[in-house]
Write a structure and sequence with these properties.
This protein is α+β, with helices and mostly antiparallel strands. 36% of the residues lie in helices and 20% in strands. The protein has 24 helices and 24 strands. Strands 14, 15, 16, 17, 18, 19 and 20 form a seven-stranded antiparallel beta sheet that branches. It has a five-stranded mixed beta sheet with strand order 2-13-10-3-9. Strand 15 and strand 16 form a beta hairpin. The structure holds 2-(butylsulfanyl)adenosine (IVH). The site of 2-(butylsulfanyl)adenosine has 15 residues, from strand 3, strand 8 and strand 13.
Length: 675
Amino acid sequence: MNPTPETIERVEELRQAIDYHNRRYYVNDDPQIPDAEYDRLMQELQELEHRFPSLINQHSPTQRVGDKPLSHFDEVAHRVSMLSLDNAFDEVEMQDFERRIRERLKLSAEQPLFFLAEPKLDGLAINLRYENGCLILGATRGDGSRGENVTSNVRTINAIPLNLQGDWPKVLEVRGEVFMPRAGFEAFNEHARNASEKTFVNPRNAAAGSLRQLDPRITAQRPLTFLSYGFGEVIPGQSQSNLSERITALRDLGIPTSPLMEVVEGVAGCIDYYKRIAKLRDDLPYDIDGVVFKVDDLSFQEKLGFVSRAPRWAVAYKFPAQEELTQVDVVEFQVGRTGAVTPVARLQPVFVGGVTVSNATLHNMDEVKRKDVRAGDTVVVRRAGDVIPEVVSVILDKRPDSSQPVVLPTRCPVCDSEIIIADGEAVARCSGGLYCPAQRKEAIKHFASRKAMDIEGLGDKLVEQLVEQQLINTPADLYSLSLEQLSGLERMAEKSAQNLLDALSKSKQTTLNRFLYGLGIREVGEATAQSLAQQFLTLSGIEQADEESLQETPDVGPIVAAHIVSFFRQPHNREVIDDLLEAGIEWPEIIRVEAEQTLLAGKVFVLTGTLSQPRDEIKEILIAQGAKVTGSVSSKTDYLVAGEAAGSKLAKADKLGVEILDEDALNILLNNVSQ
Ligand code: IVH
């Protein structure tokens, strides 16, 4: 069946619309329709072409992906050589660049000299040849005079128009950079990692690897994009006298160019531009490795000409490299303030990203294994912006024969307690929470905190001072502090020292769940501490429990159980606990609340508004009766206890039909329960 004139017209209309929206997106950076709408246009076109194959031609936006892999890339000779750039690394070299140009052009000091300025994209150079407005060739730079024909791959890049718009010259070669934006690179690598496939070390390699695929269907799946910065052969020659005008004219033809392009004056303008782009660098969606300056006046460019393979009229002012090679001396393990044990590579000092780097974090053992970093290895180190330096990859060719894989130590390098990795966690941890000097400050702050031992007046700053002055090493040492020691501290009057001693003494009367929570066992929060206390009734019961019996406690799974067992297995932790009990910490005996016996068993409460007692206290009473207390109202909530000035929670409970209690009603309920 032949297409009707209406169908032919519609196909043409769709092609034009798709090209137009592509330009809005890639050239103007101002998309007009949502992606889904764009996809619908494409789909409609595909369907029509499927029904009427005679309508398909090379220039249709559906024909970006061919269907046959190539056996090799053909070689192509460039009609105009593809040059490279000289580099400048500091302001002095930039001043030399301007001075040389002024001398050659015999410009007087008063005559201005303008440069076109652009970021230097970190991808690979490509030459696109359009004849009669149609893309007919895409070629890599190769050795500058001959490159590879990668047309079928280039056609898959949506930012590269297959057809030019407007008033194109008969032959137009545009040059620019094909690159992979960072987000696409990260997504690609994540996907590859999950599928256990090869990852790329950086976006530049990813772009190069993707463009040099023999199967264009693979290239089509890679998130490549393109910006143009120059020209090859153009017939007939162009009339504009400045490069910036010619680049701007490219946009009208539908070719994307850098939105950061500017014309700047003299070396001062260049340096200012360099500094501004350096600040933007980490926020750009793609990698750049410097900025490029080109003399804007085309007649000047002609007079200046070339030396070997670089033009005299252009320079790349490079940013400090973000990646360098160095050697790993040793992989050590650091213990953080929460007990996380982190592998760190100690490096031969190397200047990267503007600073000298001699350590790089390896995050965790999974990462060490994945990258297989070893002592003696030569590695790529990356430091981008303010991000902490990291080892990107190992150069395996340079690995010494004697090298051994890194193993996680079994004992903490700081306190010699056991190191454990809970099932399903990547992070290894020191289990000497109460004793380990690396964790000391955090452990004591947590012990003193409101929901734990609630030692009034013992804030974080004071704990830090006490530890730094070596007045305390463990939470137990708090209870042997003297008035003299305390009043000798900075900003501590005798009165407040005495208050603190009183608070310490008061904190000795506590509950088992507060005490348990205060020990800071990994994963044992308030609610878990409460459940453990209810389940085992005594501290020694918990201390002696094995993982299996711990898991009989509500909300305690294998990970929590493993943390509890390894905590109590550390002799140092047990010593600190003994010292605490010795200091006189005690709690009332717990009477088991049989869940079934109370009316509140399993009931879910939410507390809101101002109540006559602190919420924590009411919460403890409710929990002791088998109830659960949560923070937000949902359909699972049984009661909302609402005090003065209750707000949104009250409204929500009302809406959901949750029973609402004022304090009196709560007290009646509690009295009924305890009878
Ligand atoms: S101009 C004759 N401008 O850098 C001038 N090059 O080191 C030729 N590059 O091969 C290049 N961004 O791949 C120019 N805005 C830019 C650039 C740029 C990246 C690359 C290009 C070139 C290499 C030279």
